Amino acid sequence: MAPVARRATVRYTEAAGLADALRGADALFVYDFLTRAIPAAWPAADRLRWLHMGSTGVDPAMFPELRASEVVVTNTRGVFDTAIAEYVLGQILGFAKDLAGSLRLQQRHEWHHRESERIAGASVLIVGTGPIGRSVARLLRAAGMTVRAVGRRARTSDPDFGAVGADLYAELPAADYVVAVAPLTAQTRKMFDARAFAAMKPHARFINVGRGELVVTDDLIAALTTGSISGAALDVVNPEPLPAEHPLWDLPNVRITPHNSGDFIGWRTAVVTAFTENFDNWIAGRPLNNVVDKELGYVPG
Question: Which ranges carry the D-isomer specific 2-hydroxyacid dehydrogenase catalytic domain (predicted)?
């Protein structure tokens, strides 16, 4: 933050002190992008003009008062794309090659030969057509997988997704893997419910790297326990963090990681750099990078 501190008064605060820090502030950099402190502190934002989220998702900032304000919201789009795509490929390979099963056999000192699945030729449905979804699509295509997507509008001949559909339920039955990477909005909240899981193949695997609130958790548990779907890899869950007694932990066909799919070594520096580059634009009066459409809840394009 040194480049910013040379040209502005910088206040550092945790959630409890946010209201005091906001008074008189022109810009707010939300480094803790999962914080829920912004709405409560909002009345103190008496001269705020710009809010930058240190993440791709901006749902913690999309409350009515901010949406209605003149405050410009930007995000850190682009920093996490490749790392999340690699995570998705890793989880797909983990399922196909049953790496967890191999580890269990190793821990029991058992030599048990068995066959594994190929991912080349398998079909993937990516739900969410932003930059992260595109990065996932490019990597999975390079691995020989067949990719389609679901977005707000249907189209053909997309350079990354091929075909994009607008009807989730029409697209789900053809997929061997379903990857959720959509932003959390009023339209996407709870989109993966009992009906969605029932539309999937029994051998399909579900991978969520978007937001836990995209999923009705009880419906996912039911689908996994009844065999409606074969497995799930969850980097995000609802609730989060997942309580120690939650039933998801003990399901044998579930892989859980603590919301770190994009957290490559050096990501913190990359997040701060993205903010300081946008700060340069702001000070110079140039257009800001990654301006969020506050009605949509994400950066359009």
Answer: 17-292
